[in-house]
């Protein structure tokens, strides 16, 4: 019996010897790597297919965050006091170190970024609405309105012509995990298709405008640079079959031209027409050869008969 026991023991030792054990580990590792690769490839193919299909729907290709060079530095944080919180990345850092952006100071103090008014407004307006619809953000800047809607589950079409702002939107798409919900266009919405001259201020990316005068109204001492950007009417981009719940426009005085390019969208019947928010600053409008009166008359003509003022923003609906 003793000898038999020793034979069994030797057999177990042989089974656990280095050769079979190494072979077993190699086989297990190979299966794991193969499974992981196939899973990742399938997922990547699925995501790329989705984005290719989305690209075919639009007359201009969406901005490709993956191919764009990375912005630096990245300074991002959560926004304070929102039911649906999100993260956004700063484009304007201020004149460091003399006058840092107010949110950099908050970050150093361990506080979240100050809540932009538009973010809270959008979430309140959309709270009770079906998520199977679009929100259109024209003049998206760094995405404070876009992300407020996307983290709630809404699909977003964002238009932003300034490359540095687009980089920050790409940061936010990653931080908030909303790639499948957001489509971003490197373009200025307008009433004509083609190219227009756009003016941006050195060191300030939140006051760029089609009008050179409009770009410098708030920051007269900043250097202004003229660039060529793509322009396109919203009616050329938004499919007539898609529901649009909200249209937000903040384009430093170019609002009238954006609205004219969205006439078909705005002419939809009351139950299908979007809630409209646009900036109504008379100085900026005049710099772009339009006026608040001209805009109100246009909106009245397409059925938007009820507008209320909220600071410098006008909120309009069909009554």
UniProtKB/TrEMBL annotation:
UniProt keyword GTP-binding, yes or no: no
InterPro entries listed in its UniProt record: FkbM_mtfrase, SAM-dependent_MTase, SAM-dependent_MTases_sf
Transport listed as a keyword: no
Keywords, comma-separated and alphabetical: Membrane, Transmembrane, Transmembrane helix
Gene3D superfamilies to which the protein is assigned, alphabetical: Vaccinia Virus protein VP39
Domain Methyltransferase FkbM: 137-304
Domain of life: Eukaryota
TM ranges: 21-38
Pfam families in UniProt: Methyltransf_21
NCBIfam families in the cross-refs: fkbM_fam
Protein name: Methyltransferase FkbM domain-containing protein
């Amino acid at each position: 019996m003793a000898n038999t026991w020793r034979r069994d023991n030797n057999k177990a030792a042989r089974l656990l010897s280095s050769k079979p054990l190494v072979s077993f580990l190699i086989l297990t590792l190979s299966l794991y790597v193969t499974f992981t690769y196939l899973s990742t490839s399938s997922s990547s193919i699925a995501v790329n297919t989705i984005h290719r299909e989305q690209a075919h729907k639009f007359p201009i290709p969406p901005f490709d965050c993956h191919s764009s060079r990375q912005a630096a530095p990245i300074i991002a944080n959560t926004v304070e006091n929102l039911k649906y919180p999100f993260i956004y990345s700063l484009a304007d850092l201020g004149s460091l170190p003399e006058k840092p952006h107010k949110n950099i100071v908050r970050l150093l103090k361990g506080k979240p970024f100050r809540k932009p008014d538009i973010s809270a407004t959008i979430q309140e307006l959309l709270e009770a609405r079906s998520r199977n619809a679009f929100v259109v953000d024209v003049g998206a800047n760094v995405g404070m309105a876009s992300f407020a809607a996307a983290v709630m589950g809404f699909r977003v079409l964002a238009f932003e012509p300034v490359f540095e702002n687009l980089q920050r939107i790409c940061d936010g798409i990653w931080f908030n995990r909303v790639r499948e919900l957001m489509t971003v266009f490197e373009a200025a919405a307008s009433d004509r298709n083609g190219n227009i001259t756009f003016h941006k201020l050195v060191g300030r990316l939140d006051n760029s405008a089609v009008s050179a005068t409009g770009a410098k109204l708030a920051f007269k001492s900043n250097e202004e640079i003229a660039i060529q950007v793509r322009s396109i009417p919203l009616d050329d981009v938004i499919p007539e079959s898609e529901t649009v719940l909200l249209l937000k426009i903040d384009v430093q005085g170019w609002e009238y031209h954006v609205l004219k390019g969205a006439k078909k969208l705005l002419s939809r019947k009351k139950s299908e027409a979007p809630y409209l928010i646009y900036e109504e600053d008379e100085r900026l409008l005049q710099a772009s050869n339009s006026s608040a009166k001209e805009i109100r008359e246009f909106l009245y003509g397409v059925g938007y008969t009820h507008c209320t003022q909220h600071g410098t923003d006008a909120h309009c609906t069909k009554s």
